[in-house]
Design a protein that fits this description.
Layout (H helix, E strand, L loop, with lengths): L1 H10 L4 H8 L3 H8 L8 H11 L3 H6 L13 H6 L6 H11 L3 H13 L3
Length: 117
């Protein structure tokens, strides 16, 4: 669930602080929700997150079904690979890369390759 909350928030273009403000909680609560070993939001907060980020509640809560309320799913790779992210840093980097245009993704790949991966 933590990966889906983070994916929904980043797709909506919100920072943790912005989501917290809109949900009426502290930023630390959002950070906990997005941490794999953190706390799980109560049902009412989960419903608020779904509304704020415009994702389907069922997807946010269970990972089943379409993610988006407008009928478009999140990048299929995000859904398929969410369990393969090894830590929060990798998840953040992956999320940022997926928001880039195809041309900028190729540039990011070239930069990473130059770093000696």
């Amino acid at each position: 669930m933590s990966d889906r909350i983070r994916a929904a928030r980043t797709r909506a273009g919100l920072s943790q602080s912005q989501l917290a403000k809109e949900a009426g909680v502290k930023r630390s609560a959002v950070a906990q929700w997005e941490c794999p070993k953190g706390t799980t939001p109560c049902v009412s907060h989960l419903a608020q997150i779904a509304v704020i980020t415009r994702v389907r509640f069922e997807w946010l809560a269970t990972g089943r079904g379409l993610s988006s309320t407008d009928g478009e799913g999140l990048d299929a790779a995000v859904q398929m690979n969410a369990d393969h992210v090894q830590n929060e840093l990798e998840g953040t980097i992956l999320s940022l890369i997926r928001r880039l245009s195809p041309r900028k993704r190729k540039m990011a790949q070239a930069i990473i390759e130059m770093l000696g991966v």
